[in-house]
Amino acid sequence: MNLMAAASVKGETNRALSDSRAAASVAAMNDAAPNPLAGILPCQSIEALIDAGAIVARRPFDPDQVQPASLDLRLGTRAWRVRASFLPGVSRKVVQRLEGVAMHELDLSKGAVLEKGCVYIAELQEKLALPAGVSARANPKSSTGRVDVFVRLLTDHSAAFDDVAEGYGGPTFVEIAPQTFSILVRAGTRLNQLRLKRGTPARLESRSVGVDLTSEVAGFRARRHAGVIDMDRENGHDPGDYWEPLVPRHGELLLDPGEFYILASKQPIEIPVLQAAEMTPIDPSVGEFRVHYAGFFDPGFGTAEAGAAGSRGVLEVRSHETPFLLEDGQTVARLVYEPLTERPARLYGEQGSHYQRQGLKLSKHFKPWG
Predict the structure, then answer these.
(1) Whole-angstrom Cα distance, residue 95 to residue 115?
(2) Does 3.40.50.300 match the CATH number of domain 205-339?
(3) Contact between 322 and 304 (Cβ < 8 Å)
(4) pLDDT in tens, 237-251
């Protein structure tokens, strides 16, 4: 349902009823109980925040923008090439800090190529006015991480990337740093997503995630000097132009410094319907590499209830300064589970997904391998 478009055509009576219900739902987040349950907000709570004006956008929300426990964020019409990454700090707004680091402005309404090795700041269409007790955290979308694009959320007066303070009111921006491929984006392109939460959710469990190196093709390594990837074009790129397959030897794979790899988890990943999870970087003592830029797993991923038992996690891996010999089953990441405040009205994959029931899989931008 396009929430903003629907609101524009309701009669005054229906609008008043909707506003009343939305306000009551938001108030319930804070006042329903003396000690309300802390947790990740499901899709129906996110939609209630939109109805109440706690999340607004310059254009109507897309019908599939609200995920089971997250909200996709869309690029606005302006971006800036900057000479360095930055945080605004507690005393400044993002636009104030931009004045000292911006090199030139790009018009995303017509589409623009963001070059690999460069850093950009783009405005997002969504603006926040979060109620007391509600904060948020952002992460790249799976399709963004799988093409080695590093993105981080920025908000005014922030001292940390990706974290949105409780009760924050103001605009949102995203830092975009393509690492391996140059990308084509435009206003409306979705590169990251926002998870909203009430209070401080408990960490229910932390599971180790190992890597699978048993298949004949165990992964892919990105080709350097490949063409541009259109971030809104699905199944439209020949994977052979961008990736080379990896054949492990004796259950081992040698990671070269500075190269980018797509691998799959050894274990199936399952996210219970009352939980959400985030893939977190491993401790440096485990290995000299970084795993999984895109960290959110919505409720229902890999579950039998959603018809997807056996789904694997796809791992984005970049080796650091030294070559590293990776072994089959070796722990490469941690999966941290947190509770939802209530069961989501829909589960991951029910509205369609490129990654439910997945094994080793490239991003949605590419045709199937082989």
Answers:
(1) 22
(2) no
(3) no
(4) 999 999 999 999 989
